[in-house]
Specification:
Blueprint: H1 2-61, H2 64-73, H3 91-105
Length: 106
């Protein structure tokens, strides 16, 4: 009887030890994953800020005022005095012209 109760006691102790080990290992893995998630979130924020800064730079470089100033100062171009006319062409007309050009050059 003492031998079987000792075996049961050892099995229970080993089971508890394995359970505690698995619990600690799981907590450690969760802690590591949370650190990794936070690091990746910081990297994402940095990259989003960089993208935003680059978008601002693009907007500065493509601003109409900057381009007009560059054209006038560096290229010695002049702004037209009168408003230019707009020509409205329908898609059907464009398609007809494309068809004619394809026939002519094919």
């Amino acid at each position: 009887m003492k031998g079987s109760s000792l075996k049961v006691f050892i099995v229970i102790i080993v089971s508890i030890a394995v359970t505690i080990f698995l619990y600690v290992a799981t907590l450690n893995e969760i802690k590591n994953m949370n650190k990794e998630r936070l690091n990746k979130a910081e990297i994402l924020v940095e990259k989003l800020n960089r993208i935003e800064a680059l978008n601002v730079e693009i907007q500065k470089l493509t601003a109409e005022d900057r381009i007009v100033k560059f054209a006038i100062d560096s290229l010695k171009m002049n702004r037209p005095k009168e408003i230019l006319e707009s020509i409205i062409v329908s898609k059907d007309q464009i398609n007809q012209i494309e068809k004619i050009l394809k026939e002519k050059y094919d």
